Amino acid sequence: MDGYPLMSNPIVTIALCLAYFRFVKVWGPRFMENRPAFELRGVLMVYNVCQIFINAYLFWEVGQSGWFYGKFNYLCEPVDYSDNPSALRVMNAGYLFFLSKFGDFLDTVFFIMRKKSNQITALHVIHHGIIPMYMWPLIRFANGGNTVIGGFINAFVHVIMYSYYFVSSMGPRFQQFNLMWKKSVTICQIVQFIAVAIHSFQFVFMECAFPAGFSWWIAATELLFLGLFINFYRNAYRKKKKIDSNGNAIKYSNGTANGAHKAVINGQKKQS
């Protein structure tokens, strides 16, 4: 990866990630403090379409390099450091995948500009903010082989995810069809982290020429994300119960009582 921008050392990558965290916590909210929320529907539709095509392209490139045709071992594939055309194709796809993670920062930028602070969760910020730093050593020193598996799956999942975002950005008329889809996207992400973590731990049980240190690095990060996503899933989708004044259990789903609609009018809660 010598000569590729950002690959000579991790300083710029770390700086960009720190700038992202600073923007989320300080610069963005300060900029929007006295401004009305932007709608950005058209911008979001274009952005989501671009993300769909970028991730579809990455999935296709890695697959066409040989993963679709059984030329590589899905259980254990060492990194090919040669000038083999398929190895170079995988390497370039991995590098583009790394760069695309900086573009994902725009997810948060759009949330801030639309004043959707409820969607800027700890999971969202941590996941987006550390991915480039997590990927840098993998792309710099082990771009290929087992490293590709996680990106290969992730690109496919992101095609589904940004397709969901695209439909959501089309307006309320289409959002009603997204409730089950949203839950399914989260499940896909959880399954992704489980699969990649299990794949990375394989070196404990079998011989593999892929460096064990990088396997540990991948597995540890996937487990971190798995824990964050499972916690998000439990808080977002499981039914919550609250005891009323008579001692009866009230079932809640996503924080709202089933069959009840609450609104705030002139500072007072009204239930219908």
Summarize the helices and strands and which ones pair or pack.
Elements (H helix, E strand, L loop, with lengths): L10 H22 L8 H24 L20 H19 L1 H9 L8 H20 L4 H23 L3 H4 L3 H22 L11 H26 L1 E5 L5 E5 L2 E2 L4 E4 L2 E4 L1
Antiparallel strand pairs: 1-2, 2-3, 4-5
Helix pairs in contact: 1-4, 1-5, 2-3, 2-6, 3-5, 5-9, 6-8, 8-9
Low-pLDDT ranges: 241-247, 249-272
User: What is the approximate shape?
Assistant: globular
Total DSSP helices: 9
Number of strands: 5
Task: Jot down its keywords.
disordered C terminus; 272 residues; mainly alpha; 2 domains
Notes on the protein architecture:
There is one protein chain. With 272 residues, this protein is mainly alpha-helical. It has helices at residues 11-32, 41-64, 85-103, 105-113, 122-141, 146-168, 172-175, 179-200, 212-237; strands at 239-243, 249-253, 256-257, 262-265, 268-271. It folds into two domains: 11-237, no CATH class; 239-272, no CATH class. The protein is built from nine helices and five strands, in the order αααααααααβββββ. Helix 2 packs antiparallel against helix 3. The longest helix is centred in the C-terminal third of the chain and has 26 residues, at 212-237. The termini are far apart. Residues 241-247 and 249-272 have low confidence and may be disordered.
